[in-house]
Amino acid sequence: MPATTTPPPEIRTIYDETFRSRHYDEPTISSMATQANLLGRLKHHAATTDGSFSICISSGQGVFISKALLDSIPKDHRPALDTRRAGQAVETFSGTLISIGTTFLPVIFTNYTTGEKFRVVLYAIVMPSLYVPMFIGGSRGSVVQTTQYTNEGPKHGFGFGPGDEKVHVMGIY
Fold this sequence. Notes:
The chain has 173 residues and is mainly beta. It has a single domain, classed as Cathepsin D, subunit A, domain 1 (Beta Barrel), CATH 2.40.70. It contains 1 helix and 14 strands. It has one helix at residues 67-71, and strands at residues 12-16, 28-29, 38-41, 52-58, 60-61, 63-66, 89-92, 95-98, 101-110, 117-127, 134-137, 144-150, 153-159, 166-170. The longest helix is centred in the middle third of the chain and has 5 residues, at 67-71. The model has no long low-confidence stretch (mean pLDDT 85).
């Protein structure tokens, strides 16, 4: 008799900006943005990786990803690059960077309290390159509402708006 296997559980999406008309009036990276303090995971990734990538959460406004991170997603599953907003100026400490477009990036995190994996889909400005694959600005209107420093590492409080679920995600040092 053949052994039965159960498929892995589907990862629950708790927040999706796809239809929320998200945009950033003045996208900024107000940080050197060189130190990762959180790990994200891609559901679909190259077979040579485990799908994890570094994220820097610091001051600034917007969610930014590198083109390399977007290109690391296999073509069949890669979110579309919308170039209608290409050329958007992003202010940084080292000068102005110019975007190449936007996308909606699905990212998997792990709930600090329950251990449950969950997915969020974030509107991201795609940059030709960044020091880390993803940067999330923690200023007004951010999905990151709090950061608490503990002996185990930073604990980021994600909040997604009134009535939406609030989740703590453990960061890295």
